[in-house]
Structures are given as structure tokens and as C-alpha cells.
Amino acid sequence: MRAPVSIVIPTLDCAGGLGPTLGSAFEGMRAGLVREVIFADGGSSDGTAQVADETGAQMVRAPRGRGSQLAAGVARARGDWVLVLHADTRLSHGWIEAVEAHISACHHDAGWFQLAFDSPGTAARTVAAWANLRSRVFGLPYGDQGMLLPRSLYQTVGGYEPIPLMEDVALARALSGRLRPLAATAITSATKYHRDGWVRRGAGNLRLLTLYLMGRRPEDLARQYR
User: Fold this and answer.
1) Which of 129, 141, 134, 219 lies closest to 174, judged by CA?
2) CA-to-CA distance for 16 and 137, rounded, in angstroms?
3) pLDDT tens digits, residue range 159-203?
4) What phi and psi, each to the nearest 5 degrees, are found at residue 146?
5) Half-sphere CA count of 10, side-chain side, radius 13 A
6) Which of 1, 12, 99, 224 has the most CB atoms lying inside 10 A of its own CB?
7) Are strands 147-150 and 110-117 parallel, antiparallel or unpaired?
8) Which residues are bridge partners to 8 per DSSP?
9) Long-range contacts for 118-126 (Cβ within 8 Å, ≥24 apart)?
């Protein structure tokens, strides 16, 4: 029986930070859960292609923008399930068992991981706690939490929209009522929060989400996001 999960990672000039992400991905491959790792690349000019060659990951080129990249990456995937994982995110110990349990019990639903940051302190824990609460109460996990999708459901809801921002929120809204929390954690980089400040970055993200839900075009919002 072939491993059921394809991991798709959107990439753009991120070769230097892919090690931890690939480490957790290849744990799944060694365990017989993951059949392939796919880089959905938006035109990297660094060593991302070399990392793919050296690790055996596939690489598919797409127009820059996570929505377009992820749509192309999932289209290439051959697994019955797709695990979307950002290039600066790694999965915690126990994620394999959590995914296996979800696949066994929730054949037709998508799943998301609990969020944590690779940074200590109250601010990091507070922002992560809000993200996890938002995901549970409103059904809006972000892409840096990881997303596990049965291919059939992904196709039913229309997949990733080719938009430069909020592709994760758009997909989560399409999956309304079909999202389940996974008993494992996605540990993502806090670099942008350290650069901008936890309060400023968190408030900015909430503002962009609110504007998007009010109908603002993702293309307009993308110009405000860094």
C-alpha cells in the first residue's frame, strides 16, 4: 500500500531555513506515511532548487503568490491526502500519530495543527493562543498552522484560489464545518514578530483579516503585507 500523504511546501528564496521543515517531513516518509515532498516554487533565485535535488523533493514552478503556488503544488501531488506546510514551520513530535489518527477517524474532513512559535515568552504564547482560539471558534486556521486535506474534499471546494494573500483563509471558509483540530503542534518562525513587534504585527494581521472578510481585494491587501 502506497503512503497516503503528499507534503506540499510553498517556497521562495528560503533555502537556508528549510532544514527543520524537511526534517519533520522526512520523519513521515521514514514512517511510511508520506510518499513525496513537493516544493511549490514562486521563482527562487537562491539554492532552493539545489535543496530539492539533494533531498529528493520534487519542484514545481508557478507564478509567485502562495495561492498560485499551492494550487500548482497540490495539482502535482499524488497522495490521497495533502499536507500543506509553510517553509518556516516544522511539526512537533507526535505529528505522525496525530495525522494517522485523523485519517483513520475523519475520512472526509480536513485538519489543522495547534500553533506555537519558535520563541519563548508571554507574547509568543498569547499570539499562538489567540490563533488556536480563532481556529476552534471561527474555523479560520492560518497557513502557518499547517493544513491536512483529503484530496476529494479539496477538489469539491475548489482548492486554493490563485490570490497573493488570504489563500489560507479563503480555503478555510470554503471548508466551513469540515475542519478538525489535530493533536499535534506546528512550530513556526517568529522572525516577523521579532522584526515588527508582537503587538504591531498581531494587530496588523488582524486588521488585514478584517478587511478581507469585509470584501477588500487580496491584491490590495498584499501590498500592505510584508
Assistant:
1) 141
2) 35
3) 999 998 999 999 999 999 999 999 999 999 999 999 999 999 988
4) 80, 150
5) 23
6) 99
7) antiparallel
8) 38, 84
9) 118/187, 118/188, 118/189, 118/190, 119/190, 119/193, 119/194, 123/193, 123/198, 123/199, 124/190, 124/193, 124/198, 126/198
Residue (of 84, 147, 82) closest to 114 by Cα position: 147
**Rg of the Cα atoms in the chain:** 16
User: Per the confidence metrics, is the pTM higher than 0.85?
Assistant: yes
3-state SS, the chain, equals CCCCEEEEEEECCCHHHHHHHHHHHHHHHHCCCEEEEEEEECCCCCCHHHHHHHHCCEEEECCCCHHHHHHHHHHHCCCCEEEECCCCEEECCCHHHHHHHHHHHCCCCEEEEEEEECCCCHHHHHHHHHHHHHHHHHCCCCHHHCEEEEHHHHHHHCCCCCCCCCHHHHHHHHCCCCEEEEEEEEEECCHHHHHHCHHHHHHHHHHHHHHHHCCCCHHHHHCCCC
Residue 64, all three cell numbers: 509567485
Over the stretch 21-37, which tens digit does the pLDDT of each residue have?
Answer: 999 999 999 999 999 99
Residue type at position 212: Y
In degrees, to the nearest 5, what angle opens at C-alpha 87 toward C-alphas 83 and 90?
70
In one-letter notation, the amino acid at residue 32 is: G
- Compute CA 45 distance to the chain's CA centroid, rounded to the nearest angstrom: 22
How much is the mean pLDDT over the chain? 93
CB-based contact 64:35 (threshold 8 Å):
no
